[in-house]
């Protein structure tokens, strides 16, 4: 056991010390931080109050009502709210174009010149009849700006038309209001606070973490074994350690690196999203914007189930990757030979998407007893609704048995493969190794 | 510790196409230095790898410390320097050595202390915290050599330990090997450099084409090989000397290196007559000594032309 520890520590320390590890560990939180802060920050910058001239060529009070609406529009909510528009109301019946032309020189100079404008909105009588209004500005390419402007003046036009038909605008608005379907998860016969989207994201994220770790760290296990074979360290190791000790140490060592990195990432993500408002205000960017949705919270029991299946799954697949590495002579060989293992990883990952629609259906129940699949399927199912204890324990048992079987098989392949160089191992070789080892 | 530490009995290993080791038996007694000699491709490395249980023999039995699976079960008592050196390139020298010793069951702190002591002894102190890849080949070899000794093994197996080393480093390593053997431990090493083996080994086995040709202590081997040998050094007229040495009534066999030669006298040949003839021929004789045959000449005589024709098998490991 002492020896296995030595191998685990070596694998862990040497990997964590590498520049690649440090960089990738730090870059992700930076990226996350940017995701949390930047959108809100950018929005608070770009959506300052727009200074517009309202050229009113209407013959009634439509223009006046629009100006009132524009002046009432606000950016943000509560205390921090600022007016969205600074409007100058210019009555110009019959000569709207001439007024517009006289204002053009000032357009685009709102921040530099007193009396400068961001844009000119021209409204005429035909706005009601033909639905036409014109905006001349420097921010016409901003979809958000144009949408806001349109939405602010549209109700006035509609109201005007309805009034002409003798219908009360407020009554119409009430009757066309849609319904807002709020989704809330019921788990274990109790109401939870999770929305449908959050549930999906959580189930998906757990599958993705395992998938991602297997691709990255499974490959690391494989490639480092090929490397040890190539520079013949393996002969020295084999004179000190049993193949099983070598393989176990490597898989657990690399697995701990994976857990550490994911732990750091998950920790940063949780910290950033829960403290988003504070961070934003510290940066003086106000409380608006940010991620489209908060990270779903994870219950302790789900976390335990996830970590258990993550570990079992990692051991199972990493052992398979180790066997592939032991069979190969070059990294290129290994890349080709890992296909069968890859297929299972992919199948597991995509089963999450397929089964999430019917997490308690027959397919999901069957796959809960397939060792290669359980690490993906069970956390997903558990996150949607806790499994019955018997099913969960059954699945854990099957996974452990399957994991041990694969580790045993992989260790036998590893034992022979690790010390044979030269020719590429064939399927027949592999069967022979398993039998003779 | 009496009896044999390594016992190889009628071991055969075949690879597709050729037999690397052919019915070989070895008996390495406890204590002292045991030399496994042979030309390139003789099967030295294959034999050592079978002793280390890295590959399994097709036929025959191998016992280490009297047990068949000992090279795995008792690996902590064995130090092994493989023919193809291998270290973790990115690891620091001292970490590397600590790990190698830990893998032999030595406690971490103890291992580190020992590593530092050994590095100092082999003049590598300045390189303690350097990465292995920053070291020269020779230095890496010394580091790995330390790795084989760090856990004070009872049996040390070295596959071509001196190849690629300069004379100074070679001497340093030789001194260590001799000292270790003097402590009552057993050293088994393979080489094709005869002078080295002759200076160090208590017992020698010469193999060629996977078969044993010579086995015994150095003095036994020389006595058995027999013949009266004369070591000669000339300073001029080498061509005339060569003619004298070609005289089969005087000389049975000669290993003529130009300025020096080792001659085996013909049966009934008289060393004084050889001396007289050489003086007559005016070859500027500066050395004339009746000697025991050198291991080199025994090796050449035994392995003979086989060495020249042996294919480069050792490169082919399936």
How does the SSE layout of this entry go?
The complex is a heterodimer of chains A (437) and B (318).
Chain A lengths: L1 H15 L2 H28 L3 E8 L4 H11 L1 E2 L6 E2 L1 E7 L4 H8 L15 E6 L1 H5 L3 E4 L5 H23 L3 H8 L9 E2 L2 E2 L4 H35 L2 H6 L4 H32 L1 H7 L17 H28 L3 H7 L1 H17 L6 H6 L6 H11 L4 H29 L9 H10 L1
Parallel strand pairs in A: 1-4, 1-5
Antiparallel strand pairs in A: 2-3, 5-6, 7-8
Chain B lengths: L3 E12 L2 E12 L2 E6 L6 H8 L7 E6 L5 H4 L4 E4 L11 H10 L5 H14 L15 H13 L5 E5 L7 H16 L3 E6 L2 H7 L2 E6 L2 E7 H8 L3 E5 L4 H8 L5 E6 L3 E6 L5 H10 L6 E5 L3 H9 L1 H5 L9
Parallel strand pairs in B: 3-7, 3-8, 5-6, 6-7
Antiparallel strand pairs in B: 1-2, 1-4, 8-9, 10-12, 10-13, 11-12
What is this structure, in a nutshell?
Chain A is of the alpha/beta class and 437 residues long. Chain A has helices at 2-16, 19-46, 62-72, 96-103, 126-130, 143-165, 169-176, 196-230, 233-238, 243-274, 276-282, 300-327, 331-337, 339-355, 362-367, 374-384, 389-417, 427-436, and strands spanning 50-57, 74-75, 82-83, 85-91, 119-124, 134-137, 186-187, 190-191. With 318 residues, chain B is of the alpha/beta class.
Q: What's the number of domains of chain A?
A: 2
Helix/sheet category of chain A: alpha/beta
Helical residues, percent of chain B: 25-40%
Oligomer: heterodimer
Number of helices of chain B: 12
The value of Rg of chain B in angstroms is: 22 Å
Classify the fold: give the CATH topology of the largest domain in chain B.
Answer: Rossmann fold
The global form of chain B is: globular
Largest sheet: number of strands, sense, barrel closure of chain A: 4 strands, mixed
Largest sheet features of chain B: 6 strands, mixed
Class per helix and strand makeup of chain B: alpha/beta
Low-confidence stretches of chain B: 307-318
Number of strands of chain B: 13
């Amino acid at each position: 056991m002492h020896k296995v520890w030595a191998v685990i520590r070596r694998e862990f320390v040497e990997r964590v010390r590498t520049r690649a590890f440090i960089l990738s560990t730090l870059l992700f939180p930076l990226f996350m931080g940017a995701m949390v802060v930047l959108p809100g920050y950018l929005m608070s910058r770009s959506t300052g109050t727009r200074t517009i001239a309202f050229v009113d060529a209407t013959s009634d009070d439509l223009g006046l009502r629009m100006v009132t609406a524009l002046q009432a529009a606000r950016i943000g909510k509560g205390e921090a709210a600022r007016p969205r528009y600074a409007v100058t109301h210019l009555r110009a019946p019959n000569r709207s174009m001439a007024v517009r032309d006289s204002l053009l020189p000032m357009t685009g100079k709102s921040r530099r010149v007193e009396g400068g404008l961001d844009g000119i909105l021209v409204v005429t009588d035909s706005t009601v009849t033909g639905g036409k209004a014109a905006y001349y500005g420097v921010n016409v390419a901003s979809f958000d700006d144009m949408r806001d402007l349109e939405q602010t003046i549209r109700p006035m036009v509609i109201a005007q038309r309805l009034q002409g038909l003798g219908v009360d605008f407020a009554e119409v608005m009430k009757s066309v209001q849609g319904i807002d379907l709020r989704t809330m998860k019921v788990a274990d016969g109790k109401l939870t606070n999770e929305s449908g989207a959050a549930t999906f994201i959580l189930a998906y994220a757990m599958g993705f973490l395992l998938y991602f770790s297997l691709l990255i760290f499974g490959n690391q296990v494989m490639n480092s074994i090929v490397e040890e074979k190539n520079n013949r360290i393996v002969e020295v190791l084999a004179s000190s350690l049993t193949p099983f000790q070598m393989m176990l140490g490597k898989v657990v060592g690399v697995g701990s690196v994976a857990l550490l990195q994911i732990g750091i990432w998950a920790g940063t993500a949780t910290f950033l999203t829960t403290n988003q408002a504070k961070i934003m205000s510290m940066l003086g960017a106000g409380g608006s914007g940010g991620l489209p949705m908060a990270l779903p919270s994870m219950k302790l029991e789900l976390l335990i189930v996830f970590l258990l299946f993550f570990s079992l799954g990692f051991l199972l697949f990493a052992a398979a990757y180790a066997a592939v590495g032991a069979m190969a002579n070059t990294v290129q060989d290994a890349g080709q030979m890992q296909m069968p293992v890859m297929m299972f990883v992919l199948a597991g990952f995509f089963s999450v998407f397929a089964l999430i629609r019917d997490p308690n259906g027959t397919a999901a129940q069957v796959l809960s007893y397939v060792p290669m699949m359980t690490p993906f399927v069970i956390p997903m199912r558990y996150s949607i609704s806790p499994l019955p204890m018997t099913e969960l324990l059954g699945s854990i048992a099957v996974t452990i048995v399957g994991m041990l079987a694969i580790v045993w098989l992989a260790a036998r392949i590893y034992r022979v493969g690790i010390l044979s160089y030269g020719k590429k191992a064939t399927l027949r070789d592999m069967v022979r190794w398993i039998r003779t080892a | 510790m009496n009896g044999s530490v390594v016992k190889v009995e009628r071991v055969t290993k075949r690879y597709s196409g050729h037999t690397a080791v052919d019915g070989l038996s070895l008996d390495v007694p406890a204590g002292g230095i045991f030399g496994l000699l042979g030309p390139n491709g003789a099967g030295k490395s294959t034999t050592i790898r079978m002793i280390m249980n890295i590959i399994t023999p097709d036929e025959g039995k191998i016992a280490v410390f009297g047990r068949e699976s000992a090279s795995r079960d008792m690996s902590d008592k064995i130090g092994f320097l493989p023919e193809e050196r291998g270290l973790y390139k990115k690891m620091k020298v001292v970490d590397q050595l600590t790990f190698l010793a830990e893998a032999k069951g030595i406690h971490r702190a103890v291992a580190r202390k020992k590593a530092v002591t050994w590095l100092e002894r082999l003049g590598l102190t300045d390189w303690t915290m350097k990465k292995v890849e920053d070291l020269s080949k020779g230095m890496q070899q010394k580091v790995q050599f330390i790795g084989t000794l760090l856990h004070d093994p009872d049996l040390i197996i070295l596959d071509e330990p001196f190849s690629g080393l300069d004379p100074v480093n070679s001497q340093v390593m030789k001194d260590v090997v001799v000292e270790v053997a003097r402590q009552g431990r057993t050293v088994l090493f393979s080489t094709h450099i005869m002078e080295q083996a002759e200076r160090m080994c208590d017992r020698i086995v010469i193999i060629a084409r996977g078969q044993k040709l010579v086995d015994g202590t150095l003095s036994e081997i020389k006595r058995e090989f027999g013949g009266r040998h004369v070591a000669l050094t000339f300073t001029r007229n080498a061509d005339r000397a060569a003619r004298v040495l070609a005289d089969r009534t005087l000389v049975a066999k000669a290993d003529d290196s130009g300025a020096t030669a080792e001659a085996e006298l013909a049966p009934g040949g008289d060393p004084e007559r050889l001396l007289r003839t050489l003086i007559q021929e005016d070859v500027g004789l500066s050395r004339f000594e009746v000697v025991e045959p050198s291991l080199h000449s025994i090796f050449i005589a035994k392995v003979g032309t086989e060495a020249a024709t042996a294919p480069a098998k050792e490169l082919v490991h399936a």
